[in-house]
């Protein structure tokens, strides 16, 4: 009988300890599963460091040989204008002219046109001298004095501004986005009466580059959103 009582006491103590350990284990497991997911935003405005400027002009005529000579003179005049203003041969490229035979156009209203051929020529400037090129764009009317009318408004030949220095500012922006994400996580932890723990998982996110607004395409807005999981502790 005495041995039975001892065994019962030992068994009871064992079951009590087992319950304590199980409860503690569940608490620790639940604690490990507590986390907060936050996002951090970083934005920066930067000037474009590359510009592509297509200069487009039209030529009309009936004699292809005469048009060819006219286009050669016009290309030479435009190139000289650009080089006088500070651009180099490497920044100027002359595209092959596009010739439309208006008499052969079946679905156009060109049968009454006094000219048979409509030639489109494009000279493209690609340069890192963004400010210089922007100034030239405002001065292109000067070409009228030299007998060349640059056409505008064709969506195929829009001026394009780019920013190519993303790798230079990436570390700074990621640091700022991470800092902003941590501030949000700390606020959440404080409101939930918890302590912010270590980073469990982090996603840098995609960088995006867009125009600041439609009127200033030469100023770019760089944006990144990071997503971070922090553990929460009591």
TrEMBL record:
Gene3D superfamilies: Protein of unknown function (DUF541), domain 1, Protein of unknown function (DUF541), domain 2
Domain of life: Bacteria
Pfam families with a match to the protein in the record: SIMPL (PF04402)
Protein name as annotated: SIMPL domain-containing protein
Source organism of the structure: Phocaeicola acetigenes
């Amino acid at each position: 009988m005495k041995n039975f009582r001892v065994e019962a006491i030992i068994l009871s103590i064992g079951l009590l300890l087992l319950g304590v350990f199980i409860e503690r284990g569940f608490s620790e497991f639940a604690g490990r599963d507590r986390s907060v997911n936050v996002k951090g935003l970083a934005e920066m405005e930067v000037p474009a460091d590359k510009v592509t400027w297509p200069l487009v002009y039209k030529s009309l005529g009936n004699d292809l040989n005469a048009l060819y000579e006219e286009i050669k003179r016009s290309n030479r005049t435009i190139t000289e204008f650009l080089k006088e203003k500070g651009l180099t041969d490497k920044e100027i490229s002359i595209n092959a002219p596009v010739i439309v035979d208006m008499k052969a156009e079946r679905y156009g209203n060109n049968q009454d046109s006094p000219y048979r051929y409509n030639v489109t020529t494009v000279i493209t400037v690609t340069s890192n001298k963004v400010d210089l090129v922007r100034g030239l764009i405002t001065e292109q009317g000067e070409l009228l004095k030299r007998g060349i009318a640059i056409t505008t408004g064709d969506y195929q030949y829009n001026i394009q501004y780019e920013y190519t220095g993303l790798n230079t500012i990436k570390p700074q922006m990621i640091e700022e986005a991470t800092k902003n994400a941590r501030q949000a996580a700390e606020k959440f932890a404080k409101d939930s009466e918890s302590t912010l723990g270590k980073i469990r998982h982090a996603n840098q996110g995609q960088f995006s580059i867009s125009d600041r607004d439609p009127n200033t395409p030469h100023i770019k807005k760089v944006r990144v959103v990071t997503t971070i999981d922090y553990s929460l502790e009591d």
